[in-house]
Every structure is written in structure tokens, then in C-alpha cells.
Amino acid sequence: MEGVGGMAERKIRVLIAKPGLDGHDRGAKVVARALRDAGMEVIYTGIRQTPEMIAEAALQEDVQVVGLSILSGAHLELFPRVIEACRARGVTPDKTLFFCGGIIPQEDVPALKAMGFQAVFGPGANTHDIVGFVRDSVQAPA
Amino acid sequence: MTSPDADLQACFLQGDRLALARLLTAVENGTETGLAALRALYARSGRARTIGITGAPGTGKSTVTNGLAKAFRRRGESVGIVAVDPSSPYTQGAILGDRVRMQELTSDPEIFIRSLASRGALGGLSAATIDVVSLLDAFGKEVILIETVGAGQDEVEIAGTAQTTVLLNTPGAGDDIQAMKAGIMEIADVLAVNKADLPGADVLISQLRALLSLIPDRRWLPPIVRLIATDAVGIDDLVDACDQHYAFLQESGRLQEVERDRARHQLLALARQQLLAGLMDHTGGQARLEALVEAIAAREIDPHSAARQWVAQEGRA
Q1: Which of B99, B111, B132, B288 best probes binding to A when mutated, by most A CB atoms within 10 angstroms?
Q2: How many CA atoms lie less than 13 Å away from A14 in the CB half-sphere?
Q3: Quick check: A11 and B33 CB within 8 A?
Q4: Distance to chain B for A26, nearest Cα, Å
Q5: Which of A5, A32, A89 sits opposite B18 (nearest CB)?
Q6: A17 CB contacts (<8 Å, ≥6 apart)?
Q7: End-to-end CA distance of chain B, in Å?
Q8: Can you give the pTM of this predicted structure?
Q9: Pairs across A and B, CB distance < 8 A
Q10: What is the pLDDT of residue A4?
Q11: ipTM of the shown complex
Q12: Tens digit of pLDDT for each residue in B186-201?
């Protein structure tokens, strides 16, 4: 809402994407809706995203947060390529908050964190926790 | 101007898309960085063609925008797309999903797509949209497509922003009533019937023709274009219609009028914002507002007199 003074609130803009061939998007949509209900603006790019498509969207939309959803088990192969494509465009994990979720085994979490993902939400994670994490972790845009 | 601001503007002028993206955020949020950028870069705007695409939800706006962008790219023109979606009036959040229908455009570095939430703007069009369009223009985009949800006043808003307004309709219940809503038919420069393979397309086209004949004499008669956007059928005809309208604007001198209308519209909106901000910023502005609200609700004073008192007492910022 525009404030009476005309200054727009500093909205948190989040990109939610599903890389690879995994077509099960219900989880991603649930997270997207939860973030919207928490007052955030969610750019939802849908399924079958290549790392380049995700990185392009992150660049053009200047999001503060990138959330990747994957249920196919290909995260260790695809996520590094997403991070790399983002870095090539100047979108880096130190300035942009990366998190992920889906079917991701516990033992893969350290590798993902080392890549730059600040949180991994496995099966059973609840949206309340995800919303809280994003809200607490993101810095207000300049 | 701060040094980071100067750096951002310098990168922008060199065609750096990350700088463009950052400055778009700055103008959307109305920050000092954004205002400085508009001050410095506004003179470079005014060269782009702007085309608004509007229509009720489900009429295929994103798919049509996708088709139009590809067509303009085939002609070698650099394209910007601004896709506006409504913010929830309850949570102020939004799902911005127009990119889903424009997947194939992400691999083309000459197409820049920016999704915006309406942020409570009346009529569904974000107040910052004009500034976003100006920056894309200054960046060198030759054609800027502005896509918004059409409902009520949206069409009027977009007509104040775009040079050519394309109104999408689809065959089906209620569309004829939609088309007759006040102001809609007058606003459209091009009428498009999408999903033209569905039953009822011919009937809809006759209804649109009949409605057009009711409008008092205009210098430009909106053409009606049949589309099946998902198959890219009719997109070239739509491009031709837009080109013809643009040629009409140039030849008739209407183009300058359109630019002046846009400037007037934005100046008035910004002045209103700034005057109200001035009233609120004045010491005790919020308290004064609440006191008057109480008085009105208690029927101690009528709203017109209250407004007069408020403005007169606080003076100008």
C-alpha cells in the first residue's frame, strides 16, 4: 500500500523457481502463497527452469531472495549450476539470500550450505518457519 | 549525489543490466537513489514506443505480450516488458506470475522483463510504472510493452501511460457486457479478439463493430484483430495494427498530445502525493488527522469543512 506520504513500503521480492525436469509444483506454489500472505512479492517462474533462466530472472527482477524447489533428487547437480549462472550475472549469495527445499536428504545439507544456500527445508518443513526465516534474514533493499 | 549512485548511473549508461535492475528497484521504492537517477536520466527517455496490453483475467495478455515481443525482436528492436499484477488488498503481498507465459524470452538478452505489483494503486496500475517505463526507455529499449490486469479503471490508467492501448477480449459469457463498460471502448486503440477459434468469436466481433459505431466521430477507428495467441496466429496482424496506430499518432500530431497527457497525469499524481506528505510531515500532522477523524465520526463537523481546516491550518510544506 502506498503510505500517506507516498513512500512505498520496502517490499521483499522473492524468486521461486523449480530447476530441471521435476514437474511437481504444489510445494513451490504453497510456499509462494505463504510468502504472499506474509506481504511479500513473489515472482513465480514455474517449472522446467534451466539455471540460466533462473539467473536471468533473478537479475532482471532484482530479488533479495531466491528459493529453489526440487523433488527429483538432482539438487547436487543442478543447484551449483544455478549459483554459477547467478554469479556470472552479478547475483551472489553474499548479497542475495538463497534457500532451497523439497526432497533433500539431511546428509546433503552441508554441501548445499557450502554452495551458498542459507537454509534447506526438507519434507515436513512448515511454511511458518520458511516465512519467518526469509523475513528475519533478508536485509532491506537500498 | 553519492558515489555509489554515480557508479550505478555510469554502469547504466554503459548498458549494464544489473545496474538497470537495481535502479528499477530504486525508482519503484521512491528512494533517493531512484530520484537521483530520474533526475539524471529522464532527458534520455522519450524515444521508445510504448504499447499497453490490457483485458480481463484469462484473456491471454501474457501470451499475447510474449508473441508481440518475439515479433518486435525479429525486426531487430530491443524490447522491454513491464508486467503488472495486483497486490492483495489484505496482505499487500503479490504473486507475480507473468514470466511463466514468457519462458522463451529469457534467453534473449535484448528482452528485459520486469514484474511489478500494483501496491494498492487505484485502477491496478502501479504509480511507479511510469518511472519504470521511463528508465527502460532511457536504457535504450525501443519498444516497451506494458501488461496489466484489466478491471474497471485499469484501462484508463494504461491509456495515460502507453501510446497505443490494445484491449483483449475473448469469446464467452459476459464479454459483451465487459466491452460496454464506460470508458473502455474509447480507450482502446486496437481491439484484439484472442482465442478466436472458440465458438462465439464471430458474434463478439460483430458486437465490437456495433459498439465502435456508437462512439462519436474519432480520427482513429480501432481495427479489430483476430488472434490465437498460443499458436501465434494473428500476431503479425496485431503488430501491423500497432504500427498503423503509431504512424497515425506521428502524422496527426497526436503523439505530442499523448506525451503531454502522460506528463500532466504524472505531475498531478506526484503533486498530490507531495502535498499530502507535506500535511502529514508537519509537526502533529498525524494527531491532527486523527482529531479531525474523531470529530467527523461524532458528527461535530462535516468532512468538507474538516478538510478545509486541516489544509488551511497546516499550511503548505
Answers
A1: B99
A2: 33
A3: no
A4: 15
A5: A89
A6: A28, A44, A45, A46, A49, A53, A54, A57, A66, A67, A68, A69
A7: 24
A8: 0.90
A9: 116
A10: 37
A11: 0.91
A12: 778 999 999 999 988 9
